[in-house]
């Protein structure tokens, strides 16, 4: 009944949760003709939703300054968590499900215990509203994005800020960890998306492809793709391996406010100020990479993309607002194909598969070589420092 602020899939992709400015939380069942649950409890707009890793719990944050943990079933029971003194913008469970992190307009990031149902500690170095906070895949780091134009990296154990990334020219709206845990991506009101290496703190990629603020982003579980939602009403899919734009998706009438890949990467969902939640099928990844997809490779370094790059532009198919079964138009199958051509094509596909895997292995070896070279140079500097003149 109002703008959609957030979406998230459960572990098995059987459920999709969405939050809205109408103060309600919806849990949609992915089966056709299944009824959706509408959860009421928050006293103001629901700004964020996140399923626990097991899918048995659902967290939501609100403009009413509270966080609620729901059991996503017919009863819709919830527990209220209070400690923030302003709007809660973001909520995210740790990978072990034992804790969750929140970000708020009170300029703090807070960590909570899920089962003990209590506030644990605050991270308080931002000097403006904090829009987003996320745990790293291993749960040891937290990243946060703020209206103070910075992205901060925190050590959960020491509770100290490890690094501040200050390259954004305006408010930073969304941030998340790459599935490998080695990189972060951040989106901003300056229409940009930036990718940093959390080990070297180097800027790896910079994209300026949207014509308005980028409101949300989501990594594909393979780590090869990044999905963005913008106030220019489009979604964009970026190929991180090649550092380029793959697709622009048109569907929302007005700003696209939120996006999320499913945990398997088979689907993604988007929400907008048009009150629509859309589910899309991720058929941009048609090649079966097999083992290669299981290896979380970090994005290719030093890529700068602008709107001049080639892309495929997809308008939404008829029947807007329903689940989008297919984003790409499928070519018609030829009626017949000579056997020799079929076997040749199969051979080429097989060779491409081998090449892809080879490139993956070479990339890994190159990274190892770079690390060893860096270590050698550091050792050499130490030896020179110790050697008397």
TrEMBL record:
A single GO BP: cilium assembly
The UniProt record lists the keyword DNA repair: no
Assigned keywords, A-Z: Coiled coil, Repeat, WD repeat
Gene Ontology terms: cellular component: centriole; ciliary basal body; spindle pole
WD repeats: 1-38, 39-70, 81-122, 123-164, 165-206, 207-248, 249-281
Pfam families xref list: WD40
InterPro entries: WD40/YVTN_repeat-like_dom_sf, WD40_PAC1, WD40_repeat_CS, WD40_repeat_dom_sf, WD40_rpt, WDR55/POC1
Subcellular compartments: Cytoplasm, Cytoskeleton, Cilium basal body; Cytoplasm, Cytoskeleton, Microtubule organizing center, Centrosome, Centriole; Cytoplasm, Cytoskeleton, Spindle pole
Chain segments carrying region Disordered: 299-339
UniProt key word Repeat: yes
Low complexity compositional bias, start-end: 324-336
PANTHER family attached to this UniProt entry: POC1 CENTRIOLAR PROTEIN HOMOLOG A (PTHR44019:SF2), WD REPEAT-CONTAINING PROTEIN 55 (PTHR44019)
Similarity-based family: Belongs to the WD repeat POC1 family.
Protein name: POC1 centriolar protein homolog A
